[in-house]
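1st attempt posting a full record on here, be nice pls
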Amino acid sequence: MPTEIKKKIELEVVHVLFLDIVGYSRRLTNEQQTLIDQLNQVVRSSEEFQSAEAAGRLIKIPTGDGMALVFYKSPAQPVECALEISRALKTYPELRVRMGVHSGPVSAVTDLNDRTNAAGIGINVAQRVMDCGDAGHILLSKRVAEDLEQYGHWQSQLHDLGEVDVKHGVRVHVFNLYNKELGNPEVPEKFRQAKGRTASAAAGRGEELWVAVLPFKSSGDAEMESFANGLGEDITTGLSRFRYLSVVASASAAQLKGETGDERALGAKLGARYVLEGSIRKGGSGIRVSAQLVDTQAGAQLWAETYNRDLEGSTIFAAQDDIAAHIVATVADSYGILVRSMRAAIRQKDDAELTAVEWQFQFFAYREQITPSAHAALKSRLKCAMEREDGQSDLWACLAEIYVDEYAFGFQDDATSLDRALTAARRAVEIDRSNQFAMVALAQTHFFRQDLAAFRPAAERAMALNPLNTDALGILGLQIVHAGEFERGTAIVRRAMDLNANHAGWMHFAPLWDHFHKGEYEQALECANRVDFPGFFWPYLVMASACGHLGRRTEAKAAVRDLLALDPEFAAHARSKVGTWHFASGLMDPILEGLRKAGLSIPENGSSDSPRRSKKMI
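the predicted structure (as tokens):
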């Protein structure tokens, strides 16, 4: 090995692809040699392998039943190599290979043949990640997945499996990489067993708010049976992406397929208080999926919906993806019936008993009725909770959101609110970069600090962490609108509204501002009438400004009267209050012009009429 590579090994974090042949030890000696020869041929055919080897930037470590490949350039190298190997393996059905990828440090060592080799935690973790998989799996460590998530074309191929125990009490957080052609979409057996044990341990604990997706019933047609199985797995996977939900693994729920009994009995077998079940019927080219959510403890149906799809216009997989997305978004949304039921279930708990996730429920409850008194109460409670437990990402995210609201809604005249929000949000993300709630708080903080260069990547990452969280999509899509990207932001919010028919009323602000900036004031008024945001002046502000532009004096005056009833001093500080949200949208002047036409006396300029600006922390 060249001297310069040896030095690099000692100093750099490298990117390791570890792979082995499943069932290798059970083969005869001559079969083992044949399989190894085939694997070497497949690996050497990889363009990524050849490119790195030609550049002298690849270490190959044989392991008997497989190998470790050490790359230097980027974490995408071993992943691309794994995909190329997976594609080539299609011509070797007898060669059953699993792969694991991790980025980490290694050091130079000299083996018994006086050859320079590599060893260290980077290789060890890659092997542990691989050990979690079955044949066909391409598994990535959380570190590698987070690096790849920064690039859009990888996001749809990354599927979070969560954490699992490996050797010596170590836990690893693993992602499954697959697409429609390559990789293995099945949940690895190690994870199925671990989640099955967790579900069993939860049985009998009435306080646990577990959710289980029971096998969907179908007509018995083979195609519909496959559709039902896939739909259940997709819904389970989607629900699992919401941190505040504890979801029973698909494999555990699948064991109840064909069993009879009411939801209460089936839920008890899985240790789940909530069960989601349904049925599928087919007629001609159409399918009908019925789904319902049941609280087994109360014996109450919390939600039910029917979805009709025509397979002539789409594939069965597209229909499955679409229906699963709508069910997950509707059931799991923070404003939805499931979260409301969970909040009610913990209502009698003292603050000292609340978990970090349950504090999110307290924040969701406050957000339904954002008032100065509710804000002050939750802020005080959170500070007390932080004194008891300050290492929880969710708690820091809640506190960051409270400080953001303090500024955004003017609850407290404190110039340090956004500085404190930034400190809390950064701490939340530092503790757990995969926490979408924390990443949303960080993105919002950057937005109100008017640091759009930092806001945009934080918002993109937050939305990628869970694209079915309609609450997060709505919040960030609306702020993207406020940043002046009207079409894209509105499209994101409309997607959220389409996924969840029970979406929050404030989401109508996104199409509202899109119409407003186009001068389509009639359509903006229609959107304003759909906004459900009690106690705040913004709907009346829009009505007054739009009617002012349209020359509807009577309606404009009525809207101004309603606006001033909520905020008598609004006119004196109009530019500051509008500028808090519209500092970059280009709508400041059109909004104020419409208000003046509506009869509101707003100063043209002046210190009391300037948008609030906060110090940016670089």
